[in-house]
Amino acid sequence: MYYDSKKWCFTMIPLSDKDLHILNALQTDSRIANADLAQKVGMSASACWRRVRALEEAGVIDRYAAHVNPAKLGLQFHAIVHVQLTRHDPDKIVDFIRAVETSTEVQECYATTGQADYHLRVLTADIDAFNRFLEGFLFRLPAVSSAQTNVVLRSIKRATVLSP
C-alpha cells in the first residue's frame, strides 16, 4: 500500500516474494550494493535494479536514511508532547502543521483521535532547551491551547523494518 498524492488516497500494489525480500534487505542495510542485494534475494543484478527502481517509483520505497544515535549528537532529552488546539480553524491548523514541519526539535508529529489533537516526538539537548522549545516556539503558535509532556525515560523499541 502506498500513498498516492495525486489521488489523495492509499493504493495497494501487488508485491511478490522477491519484492518483500528486497524491502527487508534494504530496510536492514540501505547501503547494500545492488550486486550483493541481487545475490541475497536470488535475482540477476539487472533484474534486481529494475525492481528496486519500480518500488521507488511506486512510492513503496520513499527514501533512504541512516539511523543516528541521538545521544551521540548531544540530544539527551526526549519527550512526547500531547498538543490540544484552541479550535479547529483550518487556517490555524495549516499554520501549526507548517511550523511543526520546520522545527528541528520535532522528530515526528501525528494527528490523532482522543484528548490531544496532535502528538509530537521531541528531541533536545536538555530540559533547558526543551523549555526554550515550549516557550519560544510551541506556545507561541496561535492554534495551540495546551500541551502535556511525557518525558521518555528510556527507549524500549525503535523499529526500522516494516513488513506487510
Kindly describe this structure.
This protein has 164 residues and is α+β, with helices and mostly antiparallel strands. The protein is built from 5 helices and 6 strands, in the order ββαααβαββαβ. It has 2 domains: 2-57, Arc Repressor Mutant, subunit A; 70-151, 2-Layer Sandwich (Alpha-Beta Plaits). It is elongated and about 55 Å long. The relative contact order is 0.15. α2 crosses α3.
Q: Could you state the CATH homologous superfamily of the largest domain?
A: Lrp/AsnC effector binding domain/regulation of amino acid metabolism (RAM) domain
Give me the Rg, rounded: 20 Å
Any guess at the CATH architecture of the largest domain? Answer: 2-Layer Sandwich
Distance between the termini: 9 Å
Give the biggest beta sheet: 4 strands, antiparallel
CATH class of the largest domain: Alpha Beta
Provide a concise account of the structure shown:
With 164 residues, the chain is α+β, with helices and mostly antiparallel strands. It has helices at residues 17-28, 34-41, 45-57, 90-102, 127-136; strands at residues 2-4, 9-11, 77-85, 106-111, 118-124, 144-151. It folds into two domains: 2-57, Arc Repressor Mutant, subunit A (Orthogonal Bundle); 70-151, Alpha-Beta Plaits.
